[in-house]
Specification:
6-stranded mixed beta sheet, alpha/beta, elongated, 10 strands
Amino acid sequence: MSSKTKSPAKKSLVGWIIEFAGEKKGQYITSVFFALLSVACCIAPYFMIARIVQQLLAGVRDWSLFLREAGIVALFWLGNVVFHMISTSMSHIATFNLLGNIRKKMCDKLTRLPLGTVLDMPSGSLKNIMIERIDSMETTLAHIVPEYTSNIILSIVLVIYLFVIDWRLALACMAVLPIGFIAMCFMMKDGPARFKYALDKTKALNDTAVEYINGIEVIKAFGKSKSSYERFVVAAQEGSACYVEWMRDCIWPHAVATVVTPSLLLSLLPIGGYLFFKGNVDASTFITMIILAVSAIQPFLIAFTYHDDIAKAGAIFGEVGSIMKLEELDRPAEDKKKPADNSILLKDVHFSYHKGIEGEEKKEILHGVSMSLPQGSYTAFVGPSGSGKSTIARLIASLWDVDSGSVEIGGVNIKDLSLEEYNRRVAYVSQDNFLFDMSVRENIRLGREGATDADVEEVARKSGCYDFIMSLENGFDTIVGGSGAHLSGGERQRIAIARAMMKDAPIVILDEATAYTDPENEAIIQQSVAKLVAGKTLIVIAHRLSTVKDADKLYVIKDGLIDSSGTHEELLAQGGLYKNMWEAHIDAKDE
């Protein structure tokens, strides 16, 4: 079964909660049950007070009875507190689990997406969604599920009960509600669209901030502080202005709704008083309705306060959903067929970069590339910048899917292999390798789970970076900093190569892996790599032709096509692009 994702239908907030709650769904249900008990205990004292008033009107003067009923009222208030604590505790536990599930599923999703799709997502937006946005739902979800649900249910029950007591007085209670309801409609008008607009402006602010911070070196070097800072200021102003404008438009409807809606007595007292003086309603019923009308509106008002939170949570879930529905790499959960060996075959491969998350813009980079790389061979891709060399390597590394044609390993289309199996077979090192903010030792150990300290140090020796690692302040325990910022570009690459060697995959792809290394260290790394990849299928991409002239076969790539192929000597004899590149390379070295 393919892991390709189909776009799901639009879900409600409840649908999203059910999807991500996992095994904690039962806790949400239980929290709603205790929330119902809590709200019931909050409203029950009003019934007790109404009963006491009725008894007083009937001439009852048994103070022990009143004290006993007052004690029952106190117990209800205590029950309200206890049940609310239980409900809130359970809903918070379920919510933390839900938010954790969202983040885990989003991280898992990102690993299954084509690299281009991930790179098209601004890092500021991704970080904002996965951290701040999801985290902001904690309070909302922990209270919406039990409290909103329970208050709505009890509001409906109370309204029905009011009509059972006296339908005329119940209607009198409801007389002012249309005014409050109309005000609420004006306040909620375009609410989802406004909140989505506010989220977009906030994301733009985050993206601008991340870009400003990441580009601070260039900004300072070229004296662009003023213009770059102005972009950030504009984004910040637009981010705040959308919220201010939204609040300004809502302030009067909100004031009317919050003042008029609770004022059920505005219509109940004159209408009820008229019916009482006409003898159509007795005093006991009238007073009971007055007391219960005050209690009936409270659950509704509490539920109403969650409206903005519900819209906010729905919008955030919508953002999560837009990522979760992105098309994944087309791979099965289990291998359909086992490769016979570690040879690589490309058949008429076409590939286009899809710009934007929806892939609305396409630019074809490869125009029918075919090549055969035998098992255990050493193959090099050379050619001008932007010719498609790295694109071919990334397709072989399964970071993207071809548009048409196929990439095969051992006679099996890579689309018939699971991602786990394929990742086990291929080690990929690029010129911009990422190191995590942890020790050198742990960064290398990522290549093979369970590797011992001795294994890490042995790989470092074999890959030629042991001495430089030991020269660091804390040796293998040196923290490399975010993205390896505490190390030079060459040092990061050497650690990345050691990590790839630790993986011990039968296919190794080095994409400009020594681009930042000085010539002296490059020679050491080349010798070390040659020993470590003996017997493996090796693919190397390099601009310095002298580093790959000993390859079993070189493919010269130009404008997304294979210009020529052969050994170094064969390509020189053919003349053409490779010979011109070689002569230019030699001249540059001489200079």
